[in-house]
Amino acid sequence: MDRVNNEENSRATQPENKKELRREYILTAPLLPLLIKMAVPTIIGMLVAMIYNLTDTFFIAMLGNKSMTAAIGITFSYVSLIQALGFWFGYGSGNAMSRSLGAGKNEETEVYSSTAVVMALATGLVVSAASLIFISPLTALIGGSASESLQSFAGEYLRVIAISLPFVLFSFTVYNQLRLCGNVKDGMKGLLAGMLTNIILDPLFIFGLKMGFIGAAYATLIGQVVGALVLFILAGKNGNIAVSLTKARFTRENVYHILVGGLPNFARQGITSLSLVLLNMVAAGFGEEVIAALTVSSRVAAVAYMLVIGWGQGFQPICAMNYGAGQYERVRKAFKYNVRVGTVFMSVSAVVLYVFAREFTEVLSRNKDVINIAVDILRIQCLTLPFMAYFATGSMYMQNIGRYYTALIISISRQGIFYIPALFLLTLSLGQKGLYLVQPVADVLAFLLAAVVVRKKGLEYK
Prior knowledge:
Number of strands: 0
Distance between the termini: 53 Å
Shape: globular
Largest sheet: none
């Protein structure tokens, strides 16, 4: 009987032991090897995410219809806006959970997790229903008005994708909670399961089952459901914080840390999505070729940026947990390591993308006019890519040490404070060529702002 009780107690304490060992490792391990170990799973995940984001565009391009390619682009801008809500709930709760774990407050961690999951699911259901009800005006608003065929394809695609939105919000919330609490691998396993499902089903549905364009939408829907289920299962294993709707507590403090703590991520993702919608609206005046070229060039340029974001995400749990434990100098050193490695990577990436711009864009389009425009846009964007490592890490740094509003300013600067005014000013003064300069101008200004703010606000802790 005693042996049975001892075995049960041992099993009960295993998750707690794993949680404590993970905490101690993040607080004491040598920084550079730790950064690499934490970042590698997220970088792998970003590579798969990169392939995932390119998959629909790649297979749709094989159908040879530029309206279909443009429809994927404008639908993605809307879905990324909804994903911003998942980042909001996930980052806000994940940051609070990580600091609580650093301080040894495990029960508080569970409450943050549950509260955010309930908020994500409820929001997803509401947004999904609203999207289906207002599908026609919605597709026109996000850029579908450029042509009747674009409006038709975008509405058809979005009608299927809208069903997936509750799963999208759940997945991004739980993924970011796992990642920010130090279990990057389990978080990535969940997202990778959904992405790989989509990648496999895309050619099967589009060509094998002869579903054509709409097959890509159903592949995405099934991928989102699979990813959500895998994340739900993994959250209850390996010393993670299990998903439990019953532990949600909507106190003022809990909601504050989730909403204000995740606001920089929501604002960054939301502003990025809004800027994409505005970009498509402005680009519609120059024709479908320009919209398609912007879709192609942005997907290629995003490859390098997504990877440096993956590198930065490995820094985040180290930053938050060490800050929660009062190890401030360790936080500063981790920040410096992260920026240096990221800048080198982005510089090399910029050279590669510039030299092979045509080869990369030809993978995603068969239309010569679209390719020529996309090459011009991509090469201009390459000039400012090296600045993006400092910008991205600076925002994460401010957020993870609890300077939410400072992080918010940095986050919205690139695609909001600088991008949106530049979009209208440059296109009004320079026309289509001005459209190509919008992102590089915004990148330089955002980098300068981040450099000033981080040096002024991030050197001393209260």
